[in-house]
Amino acid sequence: PRTAAVVPAAGRGVRLGPGAPKALRQLNGTPMLVHAVRAMARARAVSLVVVVAPPDGIAETRALLDEHPPPASVELVVVPGGDTRQESVRRGLDALPEDIGIVLVHDAARPLVPVEVVDSVIAAVRDGAPAVVPALPVTDTVKQVAPGGVRGEPEPVTATPDRSLLRAVQTPQGFDRRALAAAHRRIPATGEGATDDAGMVERTGVQVVLVPGHEEAFKVTRPLDIVLAEAVLARRRL
Ligand code: CTP
Ligand code: MG
């Protein structure tokens, strides 16, 4: 079956601070989204990339991608996103042609994921896993608190999960196309929506498996992450 990558890029980037939508901001002179699309196109199996763009930035997104096109072997489609990440991913899935059997969902905000991670996710889906997620051990100890806390106020701790049993997940997450589409049909986009596609598939009773992620697949979320991403690119001489 053909493999496609859906790249949700429709977020505003509120935590990054004021400016253009996050995916359109530059890292060492090239938009984050362009880096992310290249990262998907580098995987030999990927023959289609569906970019889910900010609804008010479709023309700008198309123009940026025309300026920095992926190799001719990779087809590129741009569709408008929604109010939540989950809604944006659903719109990307709706744009997939019939012959796509494996779907990757990759955050535009993870522009530096190495191709080895992409390839290993695809390989695990090809080997029969319906939902595959790259993940790393958690380095910070994590505390659980009760809901309803007030930001800035001291919060009572309710539990400390065993760190050795926790993993931080990344993207691209890879799926049997039908398993992901079924999860998106069955689980309503309520509130903020799901933060993780595998989490939705998990809720439909499908087994999710983890493969090793990579430090450089970190998500650009806050201003410090831009500093780190540009340093990684400089080290790669890009
Ligand atoms: N995303 C999307 N549509 C939305 C919200 C998010 O396509 N309505 C995408 C983002 O563009 C990003 C990915 O989902 O590539 C991960 O989301 P996140 O890192 O939270 O990005 P933003 O939502 O843009 O950032 P913030 O939460 O700080 O506003
Ligand atoms: Mg967000």
Features:
8-stranded mixed sheet; 12 strands; 238 residues; globular; two-stranded antiparallel sheet; alpha/beta; Spore Coat Polysaccharide Biosynthesis Protein SpsA, Chain A
Task: Characterise the protein shown here.
The record marks 15, 22 as: Transition state stabilizer. Its EC number is 2.7.7.60. The record marks 163, 219 as: Positions MEP for the nucleophilic attack. This is 2-C-methyl-D-erythritol 4-phosphate cytidylyltransferase. The chain has seven helices and twelve strands. α5 (177-186) packs across α6 (197-203). It is globular, with a radius of gyration of 18 Å. α2 links the parallel β4 and β5 (75-80). The protein has one domain: Spore Coat Polysaccharide Biosynthesis Protein SpsA, Chain A (Alpha-Beta Complex). The chain has helices spanning 32-41, 58-67, 85-94, 115-126, 177-186, 197-203, 223-235; strands spanning 2-8, 26-27, 30-31, 46-53, 75-80, 100-105, 131-137, 144-145, 157-159, 167-169, 173-176, 209-212. Helix content is 30%, strand content 23%. The model has no long low-confidence stretch (mean pLDDT 95). The longest helix is centred in the C-terminal third of the chain and has 13 residues, at 223-235. Strands 1, 4, 5, 6, 7, 10, 11 and 12 form an eight-stranded mixed β-sheet that branches. With 238 residues, it is α/β, with parallel strands linked by helices. The structure holds cytidine-5'-triphosphate and magnesium ion (MG). Cytidine-5'-triphosphate is lined by residues 8-15, 22-23, 52, 81-85, 88, 107-109, 219, 221.
